[in-house]
Amino acid sequence: MTLPQPQPVKPKLILEALAGKVLPRPPVWLMRQAGRYLPEYREIRATSESFIHFCFTPALASRATLQPIERFGFDAAILFSDILVIPEAFGQNVSFEQGEGPRLQPIEDAAGLARLHDQIDMKLLEPVFETIERVKGALPSSVALIGFCGAPWTVASYMIAGKGTPDQAPARLFAYRHPELLEKLIAKLVTASIDYLVRQIVAGVEVVQIFDSWAGVLPGPAFRKWSLEPILQIARGVKAKCPEARIIAFPRGVSTHLTEFLDCNEIDALGLNTSDNTRWVAQRVQSRKTVQGNLDPLVLLAGGNSLETEVRRIISEFSGGPHIFNLGHGILPATPIEHVEKMLRVIRS
Ligand code: CP3
User: Whole-model pTM?
Assistant: First the structure.
């Protein structure tokens, strides 16, 4: 009797890049790679009464996670959910108005803070972990699964303003007026984020990304206190429990403050914003950590020669060190599918 030959296991390129390896071509995934630019997403999204309900329905959230992998063959899948499930699990009712973004009851004072539960309701988040288990069972062995949370400053900024704003001014004012309250809120979010990410890893994600989309609006000392320190605490807390997990921090728009993350061994990679200077990053950051990014979402929307030129430039400028190709921020809903295909052809050629 001849036994079936074991298939060679394809390495997960993202994990190799996160281990510091320089690869012949960068592995690639896109922030917001599941979402409204995909007709198949819009189709299943229409079956759900609300976005939060969609996120908490494992059959739908797992489908949405897998859709971009099936269509494009990205090197990683990112869990389909949202950073605002954490305020929801603290008891702050979150809703998404069509075309208007998130709505929460704003936290304006000590009484607003006191309305939150002491801890997140992990039971409410169970569907997220079930989504991870379902995706794990369906994902090709060469594709890594990425989990995520929002960084405390970014999540707090929505909890305080109660909505998205152009510059998170309500949270910045709150930080100057009520630093002792913000400290309490951030501490709660640090503990919750560690527990939440550890549960995601136990359920099957191999990499977690901490999204600090609003880190770049803070001046130096405030950046260190509200963005950098909480992210470092989360990274250390997660690695203490799950040393094998990989961590990507995305402190969007912090420019040269990126170097302040370099001494933290618990962070494996830094996500770059579109505006980050690739040459400076290649010299000062990539020599010590894997970097991820940073194609302009608008050039992906525009397509044409500009797209090809920019993809080649980014690959070339980061070719001397470990690099994961991505956008500098989430993909825009109006992005044509053919432009994503073209981007992948250039990366893989
Ligand atoms: O990357 C992925 O594909 C995974 C899913 C994911 C979503 N949101 C799905 C989503 C991830 C990782 C996020 C993160 C997120 N959510 C961030 C950090 C990254 C960033 O973009 O800065 C932030 C700030 C949020 C909060 C949030 N969620 C906002 C401000 C909005 C409204 C704006 C918008 O794009 O509509 C959302 C809604 C949201 N999250 C949608 C999706 C697909 C659109 C809602 C829908 O499909 O009906």
Answer: 0.96
Residue 2 pLDDT: 64
How many angstroms does the Cα of residue 81 sit away from the middle of ligand 1? 8
Does residue 3 surpass a pLDDT of 70? no
Q: Which residues contact 248 (CB under 8 A, 6 or more apart)?
A: 18, 146, 207, 208, 209, 210, 267, 268, 269, 270, 271, 292, 324
Please give the tally of structural domains in the chain. 1
SS3 content of the chain, % helix, strand, coil (to 5): 50, 15, 35
- For 349, other C-beta atoms within 10 Å of its C-beta total 8
118 catalytic, yes or no? no
Q: Is 82 one of the annotated active-site residues of the chain?
A: yes
45 pocket-lining for ligand 1 (C-beta < 6 Å): yes
Residue 336: inside a domain, yes or no? yes
In a domain, 141, yes or no: yes
Sign, CA torsion 148/291/157/185: positive
Q: 84: CA distance to ligand 1 center in Å?
A: 9
Whether 36 lines ligand 1, by a CB cut-off of 6 Å, is yes
Tokens of 262: 């370099």
Please determine, for residue 39, whether its predicted confidence score (pLDDT) is greater than 70: yes
| Within a domain: 3 | no
Catalytic, 32? Answer yes
